[in-house]
Write a structure and sequence with these properties.
Length: about 110
């Protein structure tokens, strides 16, 4: 069993577990999902669905925090583009104002 755990930890780039396991988690799967996980276990030499689920969840716990989803990132980029466009228009308005009044300001000096 230790060899299987070592292999799974290697596959998912996880540290070896040091604590005993004394808590249980339960969840339901469709028949298709269960068969896919059993096949995954068989292909990776994992003894049970429970062992595979434990290692997969552990992998999720040890990964980097999730980044913004692409759609969220797309929305943020679109918002930044809109803000940049508004700032550009504001700058153009200020530039035109300065150009129109430059002669008055320089004549008063």
């Amino acid at each position: 069993m230790a060899e299987r755990v070592r292999r799974l930890c290697h596959i998912f780039s996880l540290p070896m577990p040091l604590e005993s396991r004394n808590r249980m988690v339960s969840f339901r799967l469709s028949a298709e999902e269960y068969e896919q996980i059993r096949e995954l276990c068989f292909n990776n030499g994992v003894r049970s669905v429970s062992e595979m689920a434990r290692v997969a969840i552990s992998a999720l716990l040890h990964q980097q925090p999730p980044r913004a989803a692409e759609s969220s990132l797309d929305a943020r980029v679109a918002d930044l583009e809109a803000r940049l466009h508004r700032l550009t228009n504001e700058f153009k308005g200020v530039h035109q104002f300065v150009q129109q009044h430059r002669e008055k300001w320089t004549a008063n000096e």
